[in-house]
Amino acid sequence: MSTLVSAARLLDGGFPSLPHAVWRADQMASGHCAVTSTGHPLLDQELPNGGWPKAGLIELLMEQPGIGEMRLLRPALKAVAGKRRIALVQPPHLPHISAWANWGLPLGSLLWIQAERSADALWSAEQILSNRSCGALIFWQSHVRTDSLRRLHLAAQGSDTLFWLMRPLACMQDASPAPLRLALRPAADGVQIQILKRRGPHRDDPLHLSMNDMPAVPHPFNIPQDPSSRHRTSHAGQAGARAQGASLTEAIAAQAQAHPVN
Question: Residue 170, class by beta-carbon neighbours within 10 Å (0-12 exposed, 13-18 middle, 19+ buried)?
Fold first, then answer.
């Protein structure tokens, strides 16, 4: 009986020190967690506190890169880039330097890290979160163990970094400590977002987010169109960014030296 009474008091606001740590299942959570607006009002309305949460793991799940996920993140990245660095860890393709410039992102604020082993990439991501050296971190990883996810989430909780983990759509059935998980699918004029997990009520219907109002610019990564170009890109990436923490301009310069134009 005492447990039921305590729960009732808690739901009625009887414990003023706890209301931000708990929420009703049919209500959106609210609290002191800092957020950055997604730049998309429809999506902000569906997220606790109205934006991308800082100090926590955000999972974006998709079938393949290049379906609109970077355009989705573009407004938040632009808000961060003017003040702090943005880290790209294990991107699936080489960064398209002119596209980042067209997006209005200072190239000196971008870090590109391409590790040879998954363990090294995980370590790099954890260090970025732990030392708070960047305002945003995007980490692409196909296979992540549950204990590694917990470590990344714990590191994110102790930072003020926006942290997106890009994973395959097939991982949506896997358990994850991430408080926010979104499944992304391509749409004719934007992207379709399925909210898999959030601190708030369950949403069955996917959210259709139109991005027609965003200027058309080159994709921020050089996505190969055929297997031979993909092979060349892979070797260029290894030659261009073996050293962790290389700036984007340094990485592209190394790429150019590895494959000069004849």
Answer: exposed
Domains defined along the chain, listed by start: 31-255 (3.40.50.300)
Query: What are the DSSP E strand ranges found in 52-160?
Result: 52-53, 56-62, 86-89, 94-95, 110-113, 136-140
Q: What's the confidence (pLDDT) of residue 202? A: 85
Half-sphere exposure of 69 (CA within 13 A, CB side): 26
For residue 112, list its beta bridge partners.
88
Q: Which two tokens stand for residue 87?
A: 């880290």
Q: If we measure between CA atoms, which residue out of 154, 149, 147, 146 comes closest to residue 165?
A: 149
How long a stretch of residues is the chain?
262
Partners of 192 in the β-ladder: 185, 208
Q: What predicted TM-score, i.e. pTM, was given to this entire model?
A: 0.75
Share of the chain above pLDDT 70, in %: 68
pLDDT at 3 over 50: no
Residue in the structure block whose two tokens are 């994110």: 156
pLDDT value for 188: 83
